[in-house]
Amino acid sequence: MSLRLSTVILPYRRWNDGGRAPWQRAEELGFHTAYTYDHLSWRTFRDGPWFGAVPTLTAAASVTQRMRLGTLVTSPNFRHPVTLAKDLISLDDISNGRITLGIGAGGTGFDATALGQEPWTPRERADRLGEFVPLLDRLLTEDSVSYEGDFYSAHEARNIPGCVQRPRLPFAVAATGPRGMRLAARYGQAWVTTGDPKLYETGTPEESRRAIQDQADKLGKACADIGRDADAMEKILLTGFTPDRQRPLESVDAFVDFAGSHAALGITEIVLHWPIPDSDFAADETVFERIATEGLAQLG
Fold it and tell me: 10 Å Cβ neighbour count for 237?
């Protein structure tokens, strides 16, 4: 697979006050996909403006034509499969089949307690995702679904006419542990990693690449266990959370070096954060645009 370059645009600006422009510019620059985070609030942005992923992607679909759109990532923290499926089918229709659902187990951030519940343990997050993904798969591929599980239920949930993309829109499953890898292998059209979070503060880029290679090997085993070819799966790296941090955006050469070393690990799509001034994602916009238009070509 040839390497693809995508971006993630955080929903922190009012649509009519600068929020629209990055999505249109991303398509002009030729990004494969523009994603957004699906959170109720997030880290240092918690006390500032933050807008919902589904309305934002709906608006983005209306001002773009070719570029794919999606979430990185949606989680069960505040979503239910029945209502999410209806939103996704609607998004897929409005975008004419350009939606990818990034999905993961969630964490212990603000989303985990916003509905008044205690944060789930890692095991419960894995348990819930293990029920969430198969049910969502059914809801997006069957006209009517009834289900009674430990965490989620559906009673004659109707989802007609289904997705524009058949049999459903693609799932990009974020996973590092064995249970998540099995879900990715069975239900994912793509796998998502941010690297090993334990290495973010004190690890080296070399250690990070070894960790990503180990993750990819585990995905390969999970695929082999069910008779699936892991090489046919897209493998997405969301940057900014490895020890490299924002260094790949310092220059075109720095990006080419970073992208090439990760493509050698089997990564097929690299996702860069759209620059946000005075944040962890600050970057020179001129360099960012040069990377978008020149970076992949220099990889040969």
Answer: 25
Task: Extract the tokens encoding 181.
Answer: 């890898």
User: Is residue 169 classed as helix, strand or coil in its secondary structure?
Assistant: coil
What average pLDDT is seen over the chain?
A: 97
Map tokens 């500032």 to a residue: 48
% residues pLDDT > 90 (the chain): 98
User: Helix, strand or coil for residue 229?
Assistant: coil
Output Rg (C-alpha) for the chain, integer angstroms: 18
Closest CA to 100 of 65, 74, 131: 74
User: How confident is the model at residue 109, as a pLDDT?
Assistant: 87
Helix axes 252-263, 285-298, angle to 10 degrees: 50
130 near 137, Cβ under 8 Å? no
Backbone angles phi, psi at 187, to 5 degrees: -115, -15
- Give the angle subtended at the CA of 187 by the CAs of 185 and 188, to the nearest 5°: 70
124 exposed, middle or buried (CB, 10 Å; 0-12, 13-18, 19+)?
A: middle
Q: For residue 69, which of 42, 96, 50, 87 has the smallest C-alpha distance?
A: 96
pLDDT confidence band for 170 (50 / 70 / 90): very high
Q: Where are the beta strands (DSSP E) in the chain?
A: 4-8, 33-36, 68-74, 99-103, 144-148, 153-158, 171-174, 190-193, 234-238, 269-273
d(CA 111, CA 38): 10
- In the numeric block, the tokens 């075109």 are attached to 252
Per the confidence metrics, is the pTM higher than 0.85?
A: yes
Which DSSP string corresponds to 244-284? TTTGGGS-HHHHHHHHHHHHTTT--EEEEEPP-TTSTT---
Q: Which residues pair with 191 in a beta bridge?
A: 173, 235
